[in-house]
Design goal:
28 helices; alpha/beta
Length: about 775
């Protein structure tokens, strides 16, 4: 008997997953990622930070998870009207609705026993609650398990109450007398019922938000609110689903209108949220999209996908099946079902094998006298001679020349690079010579490229270094949410911008490029620097970030005077040469944006020359070049550069920045060796700014089975680990006396993310000040 019961249980579980596989997998995607990935747990922990507006994000998360549950559970009555319009079948809507009840809320689908979908509709929410508890209480798994046990006990208690009283009194009082009257009365009562329940739900969210606002200064209070609010909301959500399924059996006519209004209300709310978020992303109105938690962004987007998929595809097939099973009526499956399946396949093809957005690299048209060319760049050695000439003060002087490398690592790398450069400037400078004036080159990858761009902006715009302001500026710039715009763009925003670009392009000369999540990330970084540097006007800041990559180096560009094609070009040597390392998806090669002729010393692909060869009348903004170095998969798109290919995070090829620095060092050392009679001496100092412990020795590597998942992750370990380690150790080996090479490491653990917490920046600053 027990074996038969177990078999029946497993069979029902199998049927449930099989018949709802797409919805279960897609809805579980975000919670499982939050559970398994450290960055996901860091995002959850950030919900308790006052800077993340938890008093708003907590009720918004409850609303989004409620919509996600409804997208799995709610009967898509609106799809019946669409089906009738497309098939031109005059059939009673309520008869079709009756057939859908068993498909969505019943115990049997197509004769196969299954569990009611209400048990799975809130499963993503339950996983999120577990992840939330274990993230706030690390190392105390029993606390998360205890919360789940209480939740399951609450669900069993609700089921027991329903068996005794059918429905809770709080719901039943709203439904009293609903069965009386005609269709018009039923419609009116259903509308009033749904409106009341919606108002009740909104008041509950407002209550959570109000309590959160009052507790915003207490981290412990916020944590308890987040956990308890989600716990109560899951139980309330399940209780309502159970109630609605009981009412379906009680009165079909009123239930039909209730389900219809709930479905319309839920779908409308999801669509309005999507439109609202697109406004926030595109125009930063009424707030920036970074104001909202990335979890809210992801859950809202997935809810929209599930609602639309259900209405336009799944429900259309189900309604056809129900209609064909009726005793009267002409079957429609012969032509309708294949059409719906073809539509679904077309969407999948567009989503997985094509792209509405071409993701071409950002560029801007420039007048002839403001166009920069690749040919105007000097060779590395010619520039170096001029650079040394501007710094040598007397014969036989020994000139220290600093070659800086920056390791990738998201916002952590950006903060560490910026703070380390400022700290080195204060540590190694003298009254007659500053460290920053002797930095010849900066070669960065990924996140450190952002930090280097902000450091060079300070140099170019003459921002006075103030040690006491470094940490507050870094918090303003990097202790902010850069993930929400990336996730929104990946799921919805980029597609919308691609459609808009194609539509506008037919009415214009297509000088514009298609905006995407890369573009909006660039705008966010500029906005962050603007807020962190209130002493500068936005026009000055845009003049550095949004003009051509070469502009900070060209003297004639700084004068503001018109320039003809025959004017001599003079490069000044005030700023370090900024080498931005990226990688090319199609070839796997290293690509570099270089302010000097790259072919004269490097084997990397000259990305600036490729851009100018195919876009002679356009300039490429510095901030766009910076973005290509930190185009991490999924978070950023792979922008296409004519003549090179799609560009990806430079860490895919080599993540320390030392490969380019070593080429610079060896070229300049050979150049000096050919000039033994030079009236000066040069000592190269290669400094590697690394935000991980690169010198750690892994004595033992744990065995891992050759699963598909482990095989895929191993593919990423090779470029980020192996190439990086080789380049890093190679520069330490190849730099010889009188030159030197050393590292400037971050020795404390800080999360790898684009959503740093303020406490993480404080930790990095403490680590920095402890170094000598």
């Amino acid at each position: 008997m027990k074996k038969k019961t177990l078999y029946g249980f497993l069979l029902r579980l199998y049927n449930t997953i099989k018949l709802n596989l797409f919805y279960v997998l897609l809805s579980l995607l975000v919670p499982v990622i939050l559970w398994k990935v450290q960055v996901g747990r860091d995002i959850v922990v950030s919900l308790a930070e006052s800077s993340q507006h938890s008093y708003l994000n907590t009720p918004l998360l409850i609303a989004s998870f409620s919509l996600l549950a409804l997208s799995n559970w709610a009967i898509p009555v609106l799809a019946i009207d669409i089906w009738r319009a497309l098939t031109r079948r005059r059939v009673n809507s309520q008869s079709l609705y009756s057939g859908l009840i068993s498909l969505y809320n019943g115990d049997s689908v197509e004769g196969k026993r299954q569990f009611p979908i209400r048990y799975f509709a809130s499963l993503p929410w339950v996983i999120f609650l577990y992840v939330t508890v274990t993230s706030f209480f690390p190392g105390k798994t029993f606390v998360g398990i205890g919360v789940l046990v209480l939740l399951v006990a609450g669900i069993f208690l609700l089921d027991w109450q329903y068996r005794r009283k059918r429905v809770p009194r709080v719901f039943q009082q709203l439904w009293d007398n609903a069965a009386d009257g005609n269709t018009a009365a039923a419609r009116k009562k259903a509308l009033r019922y749904v409106a009341f329940m919606t108002l009740f739900f909104l008041l509950f969210l407002a209550l959570i938000g109000g309590i959160g606002y009052g507790l915003r200064s207490s981290r412990t209070g916020v944590i308890l609110l987040i956990v308890s609010a989600h716990f109560v909301s899951i139980l309330a959500n399940y209780a309502y689903m159970k109630f609605a399924e009981n009412v379906d059996v009680k009165n079909r006519e009123v239930s039909y209108f209730v389900s219809k209004y709930i479905h319309i209300c839920s779908l409308s709310c999801t669509l309005l949220l999507a439109i609202f978020l697109q406004f926030c992303n595109g125009s930063k109105w009424p707030v920036e999209i970074g104001f909202f938690s990335p979890i809210f962004i992801l859950i809202t987007a997935i809810s929209l996908f599930l609602f639309l998929t259900d209405v336009l595809i799944t429900a259309q097939l189900n309604i056809t099946w129900v209609y064909n099973g009726l005793s009267s009526g002409q079957p429609v499956w012969a032509w309708y079902n294949p059409m719906i399946r073809l539509f679904a396949l077309g969407f999948l093809f567009l989503f997985f094998f094509n792209s509405v957005n071409s993701h071409r690299i950002r560029k801007q048209i420039a007048p002839p006298d403001r166009v920069f060319t690749a040919d105007m760049r000097p060779s590395l050695t010619a520039y170096f001679d001029r650079w040394v000439q501007d710094r040598v003060t007397g014969e036989r002087d020994t000139l220290n020349v600093y070659l800086i490398s920056g390791q990738g690592g998201g916002s952590r790398a950006a903060v560490w690079f910026f703070m380390a450069m400022n700290y080195l400037d204060s540590l190694k400078s003298t009254p007659s010579s500053r460290f920053s004036e002797h930095v010849f080159s900066i070669s960065t990858v990924s996140g450190s490229t952002s930090g280097a761009a902000m450091y060079l902006a300070d140099r170019y715009l003459n921002v006075s270094p103030q040690p006491m302001s470094v940490v507050p500026r870094m918090k303003t710039l990097y202790a902010r949410n850069y993930l929400s715009s990336s996730f929104w763009g990946a799921l919805i925003g980029d597609g919308f911008e691609g459609i808009k670009y194609e539509a506008v392009g037919r009415l214009s000369d297509r000088r514009a490029f298609p905006k995407d999540r890369n573009y909006y990330f660039q705008q966010e970084e500029i906005q962050g620097y603007t807020e962190a540097t209130p002493s500068l006007h936005r026009k000055e800041i845009d003049g550095f970030f949004k003009t051509d990559y070469l502009k900070p180096y060209v003297l004639t560009a700084d004068t503001g005077q018109p320039r003809s094609a025959t004017d001599p070009i003079t490069f000044h040597t005030a700023l370090p040469l900024f080498f931005i390392n990226s990688a090319i998806v199609e070839t796997g090669q290293r690509g570099v944006f270089a302010p000097v002729d790259l072919a004269s010393f490097s084997l990397g692909t000259d990305l600036y020359a490729s851009f100018k060869r195919y876009n002679p009348h356009y300039n490429i903004p510095l901030i766009a070049c910076v973005n290509q170095s930190q185009a991490f998969p999924i978070i950023n798109a792979y922008n296409y550069l004519d003549g090179a290919g799609r560009l990806i995070d430079g860490g895919i090829y080599e993540n320390s920045g030392t490969a380019t620095t070593l080429e610079i060092y060896e070229t300049l050392r050979r150049h000096l060796a050919a000039k033994p009679d030079a009236p000066y001496r040069v000592r190269f100092v290669c400094i590697n700014l690394v935000n991980t412990n690169m010198d750690a020795v892994r004595d033992d590597v744990r065995f891992r089975p050759a699963s598909v998942l482990n095989t895929l992750t191993a593919a990423f370990q090779s470029p980020f680990g192996g190439h990086e380690q080789f380049s890093y150790r190679n520069i330490l080996r190849r730099v010889i006396a009188p030159d030197t090479a050393y590292s400037f490491p971050l020795d404390k653990p800080v999360p790898l993310t684009r959503m740093l917490q303020s406490a993480a920046i404080d930790t990095m600053y403490v680590s920095l000040r402890a170094m000598k």
